[in-house]
Amino acid sequence: MTKRQMTDNNILADFLVKTSIGYYCRYGNFYVDAMAPVAVNVISHAHGDHATAGHKAMWATEATFAFMRNKFSKLPEDTLHTVSFGTAFSLGDVTVTLYAAGHILGSAQILMTYQGVRYLYTGDYKLQVDPTCEPIEMVAADVLITESTFANPAVKHPDPVTEILKLKDRHSNIMLGCYTLGKSQRITALINQHLPELEVLVHHKMHPVHKLYDQLGPQKLRYTLYNRKAMKEGPTNKVYLVPPLTFNSYFKAKNVLKAFASGWARLQQQNDIELYISDHVDWLDILSYVNHVKPREIWTVHGDGKQLQAHFEGTLLVRDILKVVE
Known about the structure:
Elements: E1 17-19, E2 22-25, E3 30-32, E4 40-42, E5 57-60, H1 62-71, E6 80-82, E7 88-91, E8 94-100, E9 108-114, E10 117-121, E11 143-147, H2 160-164, E12 174-177, H3 183-194, E13 199-202, H4 207-216, E14 224-225, H5 228-232, E15 238-242, H6 244-249, E16 257-261, E17 273-275, H7 283-293, E18 297-301, H8 306-311, E19 317-320
Parallel strand pairs: 3-4, 4-5, 5-6, 10-11, 11-18, 12-15, 12-16, 13-14, 13-15, 16-17, 18-19
Antiparallel strand pairs: 1-2, 2-3, 7-8, 8-9, 9-10
């Protein structure tokens, strides 16, 4: 791995580094969000680009493990270490604490403290209100290791209530594409609250995840498992939630309006309704969170950090996380 590197403010430049399989902390000898089996892995949340199986030991929240059990047929219980938000545990000489990230139910920021320096890995996070998951906890840190998916001044996520109201008075059933975990439950809650006249039907892959949200989340959802008869009969007040692959396979579907809930403009093309609802932070959210965290350095992951580097040039060190040549 890399040689020990330290800046003049006691921050270890190589405390957490990017490898081919995930983020590695050699000072505690563990990985964060590893994509291939490792000895010790701390998992921020249950989305597939962050959570994988096969590790000898895993640390995550109760909800994250519940979603992983639903996805993976073999997840040995003796490898799972369930951690509550705010409870510290040790990996080597590093103290680790999970804090709510507000991204989906059970999603966690990972605070790692070593030799008095606090390194905060955000994972995916959002600041917008979402009644289906824990709200983000503001955490002070010396180093903010932030996702930068939408770290661009041109990106501003609109108000989700304004967006969901685009489905009102459409006089047609709607096929709405959204991710199975997190987004579909948030969409269901938004419809339940702001468009109670609409009936939510969920794809069979979403149904068990909705049930887990009912069991573990802060709010009960109103929905029905999709069946063709229900969609075809009765009033045209149905919103059928489907995963991305199913949505794409229905590109010739007739007698329905098509929408896809996402912050990405490319996913709005050729749909009947634009629905910009994102579970990530936008540019202003990141700047707001930096103001709360008050870091001495920012390291960027999961995107392009160049705009943040330019914005803070001369006032705050911003750089991509170090990459290790293996």
